[in-house]
């Protein structure tokens, strides 16, 4: 039999010491525990012996000392990332899924990621590239990187062989970490991805994908414009995804009342071959779309005057201007007696 991919043996079979187990009570409350022989899990309503779970099949039920019943299951990766210790905010599973698919992360790929944060996205990337791939994750903060490494080790059961974590700023670290044009995919989850475009362009192979995850529309706009201005990338595409849970109870089958309305935006682009100029955009931008002095509240216009939001006009947001002639015609139409209409 061939050797199992890293972590696969921890995803199947009866519960073993060291496994994480998610306990769910009748009200849907969840607790995640790590199985340690001889240890007990206490709540205010009694306790469970870990030894009662070690050796039991995944998907079993267990009773505590006051007969409260819990369903015991191995957490999925999506459960695990939401309950693991966090230094920085994590990429939610819905966005990690989008990143894996839309950035075309494939088995054996050479991927660069920054920052690492708590390691949530790193784990999805590692699973997608597999043991034959290579993930270089760059993180400025050593303390965050330590948390991420511990989280991934706890999930995979060992240090993943495809993973290298480097401490530093991506702009300085990436050119030291990889030869030019050797990386298949780059994933950036950080405040200012536009600062990293030169380093990413150096590292990516022609045709390679850059995907950025940003939290605000201002970041999205900045990274899109800087990708275009760089000249070494294809026209970017951006989107967001919203996932709405559904309540399933008898005839009450409806969307849940609450949802995560916003997590972040994704934007992708691809590295052009060296010396290639992207085809000119045939769609003309709407008048005013590129007047930075007006759309950026904190930037100063050529005349040294900072424009505030009261100076903004519809054209600054891509609205089509309405001609004075059209307005006059409409006003005449609405003021004319009914029989003339
Ligand atoms: C939101 S967190 C990343 C979360 C991570 N993707 C996850 O799913 O757990 C952003 C991280 O980027 C790091 N960071 C920001 N700019 C960076 C840069 N230029 N180079 C390396 N790391 C950077 C920050 O220290 C922070 O830990």
Automatic annotation (TrEMBL):
Q: Molecular function terms in GO for this entry?
A: tRNA (adenine(58)-N1)-methyltransferase activity
Q: Does the keyword Transport apply?
A: no
Documented EC number(s): 2.1.1.220
Q: Which residues form the tRNA (adenine(58)-N(1))-methyltransferase catalytic subunit TRM61 C-terminal domain?
A: 81-247
Gene Ontology terms describing biological process: tRNA methylation
Keyword annotations for this protein, in alphabetical order, are: Methyltransferase, S-adenosyl-L-methionine, Transferase, tRNA processing
Record flagged with keyword Methyltransferase? yes
Entry-linked InterPro entries: SAM-dependent_MTases_sf (IPR029063), TRM61_C (IPR049470), tRNA_MeTrfase_Gcd14 (IPR014816)
Q: Where is this region: Disordered?
A: 273-341
CC terms in the record's Gene Ontology section: tRNA (m1A) methyltransferase complex
Any one Pfam family here would be GCD14
Q: Which domain of life is it from?
A: Bacteria
- PANTHER family to which the protein is assigned, alphabetical: TRNA (ADENINE(58)-N(1))-METHYLTRANSFERASE (PTHR12133), TRNA (ADENINE(58)-N(1))-METHYLTRANSFERASE, MITOCHONDRIAL (PTHR12133:SF1)
Q: Give the record's subunit note.
A: Homotetramer composed of a dimer of dimers.
- Give the function comment from the record: Catalyzes the S-adenosyl-L-methionine-dependent formation of N(1)-methyladenine at position 58 (m1A58) in tRNA.
Q: What is this protein called?
A: tRNA (adenine(58)-N(1))-methyltransferase TrmI
């Amino acid at each position: 039999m061939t050797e199992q991919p890293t972590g696969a043996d921890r995803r199947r079979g009866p519960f073993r010491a060291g496994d994480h187990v998610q306990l769910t009570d009748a009200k849907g409350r969840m607790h995640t525990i790590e199985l340690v022989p001889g240890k007990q899990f206490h709540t205010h309503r009694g306790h469970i012996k870990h030894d009662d779970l070690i050796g039991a099949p995944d998907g079993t039920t267990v009773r505590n000392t006051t007969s409260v019943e819990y369903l015991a299951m191995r957490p999925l990766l999506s459960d695990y990332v939401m309950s693991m210790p966090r230094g920085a905010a994590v990429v939610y599973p819905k966005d990690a899924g989008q990143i894996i698919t839309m950035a075309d992360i494939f088995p054996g790929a050479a991927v660069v990621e920054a920052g690492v944060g708590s390691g949530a996205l790193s784990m999805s990337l590692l699973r997608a590239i597999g043991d034959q791939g290579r993930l270089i994750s760059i993180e400025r903060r050593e303390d965050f990187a330590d948390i991420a490494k511990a989280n991934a080790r706890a999930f995979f059961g060992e240090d993943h062989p495809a993973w290298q974590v480097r401490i530093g700023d991506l702009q300085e670290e990436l050119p030291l970490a990889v030869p030019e044009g050797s990386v298949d995919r780059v994933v950036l989850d950080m405040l200012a991805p536009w600062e990293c475009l030169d380093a990413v362009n150096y590292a990516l192979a022609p045709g390679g994908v850059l995907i950025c995850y940003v939290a605000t529309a201002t970041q999205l706009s900045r990274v899109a414009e800087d990708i275009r201005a760089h000249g070494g990338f294809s026209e970017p595409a951006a989107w967001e995804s919203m996932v709405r849970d559904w309540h399933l109870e008898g005839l009450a089958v409806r969307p849940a009342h609450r949802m995560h309305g916003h997590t972040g935006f994704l934007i992708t682009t691809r590295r052009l071959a060296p010396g290639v100029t992207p085809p000119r955009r045939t769609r003309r931008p709407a008048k005013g779309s590129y007047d930075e002095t007006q759309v950026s509240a904190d930037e100063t216009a050529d005349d040294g005057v900072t424009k505030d939001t009261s100076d903004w006009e519809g054209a600054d947001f891509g609205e089509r201007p309405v001609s004075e002639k059209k307005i006059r015609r409409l006003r005449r139409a609405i003021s004319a007696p009914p029989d003339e209409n």
